[in-house]
Amino acid sequence: MSKVLILLTDIPFHDEHVTTGASSRARMIGEGLKSKGHDVCYAVPKAIYNDCSDAVKSTYELYWHSTVSLRRTLNIVKPDVVVREWHGNLELLKSVGDIPIAFDLPASYLLEVQSQGIPMELEIENKIKSIAYGDYFICSNQRQWYYYIPWLMLAGVDTTVDNMGIIPISANPHLPPLQEQPSEPVFVWGGMFWPWQDPILFLNIIIDELERASYGTLNIIGGRFPYNCYINRKYIDIPNILKKSDRVSFKPLLSYKEMLNIFSASSIGVDISKDSPERHLSSPFKTVDYLSCGLPIITSAYMNIADLINKYNAGWCVEPSDEYLFREVIRYILKNYKDISPLKTNARTLIKENFTWDKTIEPLHQFCINPKKREKHFPVYLNTVSYNVGVRLRELKKYEESIKEFENLVDDKGAPIEWIHFHKALTYIEQNMLDMAIKEMQKEEELYPKPVIKIHLGRIMRLKKHRDESLNILFNTLDEYGYLEWLYFEIALTFIEKQDINQALLYFEKEDDRFPKAIAKFHIGRILRLEGNMDKCIEYLKNALEEEPEEMYVRGELSLAYSLIGDIEKAIVYFLEEEQKFQHEINYELYTLASACKRAGVIDKAIEYFNALLDRKHVEKLHRGGAYFHLAEISLNQKQYKYAQELLLKCLELIPNHKKASQYYKDMDIKLSAHCF
């Protein structure tokens, strides 16, 4: 038989501890393989290993590995097969080398991720690339088998070959002792408070019927995921949402042993949730645990196990949309409680005949008898996913990960993919690593010449403040290729930095004529404001806003324009819209608005906005010092001399050469009245 190493992401199962689906699944697979004669050991990341109790370490042959390499453990264990629980961690998978990998594919992780609002493109790419390293695959039910066929194909796996088996969620062949039926009905619900398995409606109906009948109880065991890796995930706060009743008791997550004891002492297991795609694919552990303890269950009619529940008469299967039928089932149980006792035996028979790990492990057992590496083919189209992931990582400011994603992209002959050096250059630009960006742009131009590279080289030279060199590159590009989108725009930006406003305006207008875009109109409006042409400025900015309502800074620029012409009401409206919509802090806009309010005599607003500016963390000395000065002037006018003196001192600490502040402070005398100013 084979030596099998199971890679686990959670603390390994122990019946004295709270368990998770991943650790229960790993234990089930490991014990199933042991029952067939295989030698099984486990490995976890070092941080998890350090958190394992002595009881866990003494229960298993347990090893640790680093987060990026498994070589140390492989050299010690020398396994014939590696079984990977969950997907992900490509570096770890690469380090497995020539040892065959069997993947235990999680039911519907992406559907769970989607309900948590986690960026999907990163997870999708990780899933496909992880699967591409597998040699054999297992899942929990027939629906998951169908679900994973297209994923395997996307990862370059030949699905005409027998390389995937179904191993259901299974129980220990030695089932818990069967206990007597309680004198009154005891319903039990157990599990994590995940949002994709929402039982609130059905638990409330049970509570209604228990209260109506003054008979029976409901036990709820559960809580949030016990490990910090999910600390920021969403949960349903079941204890605080459910109806209050003396017939309901709540217990936190318990050790597996304690949980089974409560299940065994109960009457009916509740495993029904709102309808969702995730539930259609799932095979919950608690379903198997309920049945193993001799609990008939109430479950959704669409669940994988529903047909067997009906066949063995081991519970009730109800469509979640049929609230009336669910209520009738609860009433039937309460009215005929003594008659449902035979269902306890039926529940255990269902498990014994279908779901014990010594029977269900057979597909993986057969692979482990003769494990083989399959011929790998990593589809080139995966590069499209990686492009998007690399760009997304850059947007998230995860620059090192973004660069790494682009570096891993090669074609099927090992050559660099077109646009890779370009994307790397853009990532370096965002980090202000401009020399590295130039090198990458030059590599891209050498491999795959294209005029857009020259535009970006001109842009980089502008960012390096080599403005004449920037214009030289951009005009040469114009001569060689004619007009290209964004070319006039870059020329205009360079002229702005050279303080040649007329030339900048000319090229922004040319860009807007050829490829109208809101950002060009924004810059034209900005230049017109600098020239004092406020009517035209506002006209262009409003056109920009109509063209692209989501364009940043346009409302802020409008706020500045209206501030300068004294229309404080509109200035405030556009400023607040910009701040609320994009949640960024543009200090010069707020400073200008506060100053305009002061000039217009809207003193309350001026004070509010100057103080708001001072409350911000990253404010330039000039603006912070200016705010202190303006507040000091307001205080002087309000005859708050001592406060004005404090503000002037703060201003001078930031702007020592501020003439007016220096004069005010020098002339400040407690004996003088305000008119001396």
Summarize the structure.
By secondary structure, the protein is an alpha/beta fold. It is 56% helix and 9% strand. Mean pLDDT is 89; it is low at 670-677.
**Low-confidence regions:** 670-677
What is the average of the pLDDT values? 89
What gap, in angstroms, lies between the N and C termini? 97 Å
Shape by Cα distribution: globular
How much helicity do the residues have? 55-70%
**Count of alpha/pi helices:** 35
Which sequence of strands runs across the widest sheet? 3-2-1-4-5-6-7
| Fraction in beta strands | 5-15%
How would a crystallographer describe the biggest sheet?
7 strands, parallel
| Gyration radius, rounded | 34 Å
User: Using DSSP, what is the number of strands?
Assistant: 13
Structural class: alpha/beta
Task: Characterise this structure.
It is built from 35 helices and 13 strands. With 677 residues, it is of the alpha/beta class. Strands 3-2-1-4-5-6-7 form a 7-stranded parallel β-sheet, sandwiched between helices. A 6-stranded parallel β-sheet has the order 10-9-8-11-12-13, sandwiched between helices. Helix 5 links the parallel strand 4 (81-85) and strand 5 (101-104). The longest helix has 17 residues, at 621-637.
